[in-house]
Hints:
Chain A has 309 residues and is mainly α. Chain A contains 13 helices and no strands.
Amino acid sequence: MSGAEFVPLSLTPLLIGILAAVACALPGNFLLLRRQALIGDAISHVVLPGIVVAFLLTGAIATWPMLLGAAGAAVTAVILIEAVRRLGRIEPGAAMGVIFTTMFAAGVLLLEQTDTSAVHLDVEHALYGNLESLIWLDATGWSSLWDVEALRYLPPELPRMALTLLGVASFIALFWRALKISTFDEGFARTLGIHTGGLSLALVITASVAAVAAFDAVGSIIVIAMFICPPAAARMMTDRLERQIGWSVVFATLSAVLGYVLAGYGPLWLGAADAVSAAGMIATVSGVILAAAARFGPCRRRAGAPAGV
Amino acid sequence: MLFDALFLQLGYNATLVSLGAALLGGAAGISGTFLFLRKRALVSDAVSHATLPGVGLAFLVMVFLGGDGRNLAGLLLGSALSAGVGLVCMNWLTRNTRLAEDAAIGAVLSVFFGFGIVLLTVIQTLGMGRQAGLEGFLLGSTAGMLMSDAMIIAGGSALALSVIVLMRRPMMLVAFDPEYAAARGLPVPRIDMLMMGLVMAVTVVGLKIVGLILIVALLIIPSVTARFWTDRADRVVVYAGLSGAVAAYIGAAISASAPNLPTGPIIVLVSFALFALSLLFAPNRGVLAAVLRHQRFQRRVHLRQGLLALAQGHPIYEPLTLRLLRRAGLVRPDGVATDMGRARAAKALRDEKRWELVRSDLAHEAAAALYDGLREIETVLTPDQIREIDRRIGGPQEVLA
């Protein structure tokens, strides 16, 4: 395929997909090891009411209010889950189930009650995202990458997603030692003077920032898949956290690239006319990778489990 | 309008939806309780999302076979099959790999849902008439419900309920204490599978009314609500069924009474309202009850400390203690003890001394274990025993200068 076609139509969605996948997979590694893997699921459900409320308050589809609304909803949900868990003495899974389903229902109801027919805001959009539409029309070919004029019209999601990835990566790099120790042995971390409670909250907030930014660009289904599948597959490959994170980045990138290509060009190869949902295909590919890792990964069994069980 | 809806006066379709929803809510509340007591509430999330590819595949298969892709029974069969595959995958992941259950739930949920969305876009691109309303399965739609659809929902719920009635004892045992159940020789994995199967059945039946994203709420919220009201497992099941049925019935009625009120979200919000009321006002486990209990305890401690201070002639500065003593008529407004106050204070001091003896005497070990600084000694020892202790304390003694 020529650069004249590839750069404007496929390069930016592909890059955004990769950035979003990696930004979610990085904190996902820690959430997985801390048995909080479903936080990503909860966050991606409550983002909907946040966005609807932001839309109702500002009356327009603008990026920053929506991102703020989504982030606010994510933090509210985390606080409410914690409140229900402590006040009602309910196990965390059920508390999470109560809160995120209710907030999602409230979001759907608000959406139905308000007249959003004039603007592009609906539940399906929130679920699938619109990765395919993030095209860079001003590009004419590879040379556009050095063309300042064309670069100005890059889809804004691309720099935003890159910034998010940078923020997530630097959070993990800065708190690497504390995160690693508190993930594996919280009691020991506390004796070293690490504020495990604060760190845990910071991790959840980092994850929600990644989720919200990625949600804006690619929809919630990729967010959930990328929080869990690449880290889970990476977990089957190695026993070392450093290598696990490396593998998860590889798997996330691979899912994004393969998923995008399969969704965009797969149907054409099969003779169909249109592309299928890239978000769904990326999630599917990450599942296939996870299945392969679960079947053939060198460290797929629990440590100490008898062979052949 | 709302009352009309509540008393089934809003016409054929609304009546059908309300009754169907109530049956579904009851069945969901009850089968969700077993999951909740087993601490696997979020498994229902994976099951419900895993139905989507089945819906898409069933639609495609029915269309290719030349039938009507929207046949509800066919779509539900497909969704049940794919939810079953999802369950098997989840169990395999938790049992054969090092992944914890939450990761397995998340993996199954996102991958199956993603694949389902791919199938939905395939259906869209094949140009089979605007996806044939399959998005309705995401959030539920009751607008065009037919009598046959309602019969499927009612039949499915009734079937699930009767299986629960038959299997309630083994399921309860496994939900409550799986190790003990295994020791009794029950096939725990198979009973777990049965619970999951019930959840799957309820999910599939509920797809039409509340949609696959919100059916999770109907499975989780009623059992959590019921848990506030009782500590007995059998009652939790009954209360969960009731609260699920009531929430679904009221929700369906509200949704029928005005336009733009989608059934699924309203049902979820009504059942959350029941949950919030229980969280706040349930006796014993509710927040209000806990606050009252705390205050009562605080008053007892303050009163007791105040009496001991009075008996030893210490001045009292603590405002709450002073207020409590004054309200009980034990001190005058200027802080000096009344006659009754002096008597109660003397008794409190003597009780302390009695407790001291009881706690140092091994013969009273059982009674001493009940000492918490607040308990009246008369509630623990018999008058004879107290008289014996008093004899050992003896009368007032002269204080040597």
